[in-house]
Amino acid sequence: MNFSYLDIAIVIIYLAGVTAYGIIKGGRQSSARDYFISDKAIPWWAVCFAIVATETSALTFISVPGVAYAGNLNFLQIAIGYILGRIAVSYLLLPKYHEGELLTAYAYLGKRFGATTKNFASAVFMITRVFADGVRLYATAIPLALLLKGWDLFPNAADWKIYSYSIIIIAVITLAYTYLGGVRAVIWTDVIQMFIYIGGGILAVYILSSNLTVPLSETISQLSAKGKLNFFDFSIDFTKPYTLLASVIGGGFLSMASHGTDQLIVQRLLTTGSLKSSKKALITSGVIVFFQFALFLFIGSLLYIFFNAQTMKADEVFPTFIIKYMPTGVSGFIIAGLLAAAMSTLSGSISALSSTLVEDIYKPYFGKEKTPQQLLKVSKLIALIWCGILILSAFLFMNSSQSVVVLGLSIASFTYGGLLGTFLLGILFRNIKQVSAIIGFAFGILGMILIIYYTKIAWTWYTIIGVIISIVTANVINLFVPSPKPGISEKHSD
């Protein structure tokens, strides 16, 4: 094992440094609003980098190289859909969020339909985010657990205990600056962490290329001959997730849902202070993600040659190389990059979950008489609670045999279709009533549960199918729902 005391020192210094930086940049907050979306506009480029860091998480760092190791570059087609989806969000959804003083994405549904729709959407987001980010937190524990086992710090401990320790260590460190610094700490640490993990990826390519037994040009020829560099898949097969059709259409709708209706991303976009800045941050992030996916897929392809196509668990391929084959000092930097990717998503999740619970649920029903300072204290307490829940969620996935990147995206797909469908109902169908929207939303989720469990349709199609089910159901139900009596506002009748 090549992980030395120097590597350990680098990781510790990084963890201490990023925590201190986050606390300093976060400063003191004056209210819950300041804590969640910042009273001071944050530059669009910083928000752009924060979006990239947040959606990347440990899944990209660990699992995307594994996808290329086990397959080829077809996964990169999804990034094309991601860019198109972001463009749609920029011109369809973002203008709605910048109308008025909205602090969450779901506040729009409250304005359009009523409190019941807003509360339902908020609850669905929170449940989905807890499980999806439980996967991400677990993914980060993989290399840290390998390190702890390699150091033999817990010689008699079972694997599940070592993974549990790893999950708790990462979560507690991330909570420190998130709790104290709020959304400003989250965004500015994300900016630093994005450059750290991308730098780690570039360094990994250099080290890998230097340690191959044949020149890089010959390596690429070998990969090409084996089909490992195939990018486009023009086949029509709805059971394959990475065909061009599934990737562009399915990836586009998935991106619309994740970046247009998920508070994890919308919260960041609301900190820019203007619609124009939000658009620039969102669309530019899609371009960066495309090249980022290409980088980590290329790493997986090189690892295929380096390990001579050994049979390995895909999610452990890159962590194994980092820990066992990286030079002293480099391993520490790349592990720091991995932790950076994980912490950026985890901190964002804690902040987004807290803002949703406080602004959409607690404040309207329990906090109307609270002062801004009292709401701030409640917000920080709720952040603590969510951190604990995310730790418990991560424990649930320790025995999963599925690739964590597919697992994480599949979980979100259960609800993203219904969620995006409801937003599109509000924007595109002016006559849809609240009860119709809620039933459509519910049927979208129910339909996806049935499709996921009883069909072999690829996960990339889940979101668009959920959208269609929600929109069609709501429009049919709306035909039978009487209009509210004159003088009664449906939005406030619940």
What do you see in this structure?
With 494 residues, the chain is mostly helical. The protein has a single domain (5-403), classed as Sodium/glucose cotransporter. It is 75% helix and 0% strand. It is built from 18 helices and no strands. It has helices spanning 5-26, 32-37, 44-70, 77-92, 94-97, 106-112, 115-151, 159-211, 216-225, 244-260, 263-269, 275-306, 317-325, 330-366, 372-395, 404-428, 434-454, 462-478. Helix 4 packs antiparallel against helix 12 and helix 7 (115-151) crosses helix 15 (372-395). The longest helix is centred in the middle third of the chain and has 53 residues, at 159-211. The chain is globular, with a radius of gyration of 22 Å. The mean pLDDT is 85.
Keywords, please?
494 residues, Sodium/glucose cotransporter, 18 helices, globular
Mean of all residue-level pLDDT scores: 85
The CATH homologous superfamily is called Sodium/glucose cotransporter
End-to-end separation: 62 Å
Name of the CATH class: Mainly Alpha
Structurally, how many domains make up the residues? 1
The whole-angstrom Rg is 22 Å
Secondary-structure arrangement, i.e. CATH architecture: Up-down Bundle
Got a strand count?
0
General form: globular
Unreliable spans: none
State the helix count.
Answer: 18
Order of helices and strands: HHHHHHHHHHHHHHHHHH
Brief sketch in words of this structure:
With 494 residues, the chain is mostly helical. It is built from 18 helices and no strands.
